[in-house]
Write a structure and sequence with these properties.
7% helix; Immunoglobulin-like; 3 helices; 13-stranded mixed β-sheet; 314 residues; mainly beta; two-stranded antiparallel ribbon; globular
Amino acid sequence: MTMAIYMYVHCCGLFRKFLLSLVLSVPISSFASAHVGVTVPFVEVPDPASITIDGDDGDWAFFDPRLALDREGFFDRESDYVDAADFDFTIYTAWSPPPDNSWYCFARISDDTLKIENEDPLKWWQDDTLSITVDSDHSGGSIYGFTREELVNGQRYYARVLPLKHPRLPHGQAGFLDQHHDPFLEEFLWAMHKPHFDIAWTMRPPDAANGTLHVEYTFEWKAALWDMLGPSPEESKRHVFAPGQTLHMGFRLLDADRPGSGRKHSMYILGGHQHQDRDADRMPDFRTITLDEAQNWRMPAEQDAMQPSSADGK
């Protein structure tokens, strides 16, 4: 695999420098293994009972904002630079040990133009969407979703505001398990309902609709992760969180309001790979750390921004 280094001279955020330091510190030979060269801190929730899934970040005070995922720590497949006035975001992601044993996430996204057109959640990828890919047991392999085995191996999730009425969304939830071929999908949709997946969203202005200008929206969720996903909880293997684990996880932000049609922005974690939603080995690593480790985490000193080749980016 070719090691990638992309120049993002416009970005200088702390988390971006942290990612760059990790990319540059990994020996080139290690890029041939199941790791794209980026490791993201995955923070423990100190008190899961204190988090209410309502789309508000008031109960995320424990999360060190230095460790947030943000626009400056991502590259865009569609352009060389993304202006904050056009599209901006901040994402917190965390985990809890048993008995709660859950994945938590909060995301705040601002966009100059909202594109929400598709009722069918299998077509949400054509709208403004947050896409997340997960390989919780770090086993790697294909998760593309063209076969049942790929869906069992790793999961592709979408979150989209203003979910419309559709048979696949019986509870009107804003999160959905994506898969290319419907015959393999229906038996797994239980995993997107409570208590296995609980998601909320907010929107400003509250009456926003497709085409509304200058919107800000949030997602917040609590979810189980699955090392092996089956047609029921009993036939699945739930991931059990603990400190010091490494999970494959990929975040992708889609901004779909290109004039005419198509995506204006398609953003991935800096140092990651655009094929993370096909191949789990191309996802960044997320390392579970305790709250004490997060509080004591030190960002590296500033260094020149360097950027990866077309194999690991656009």
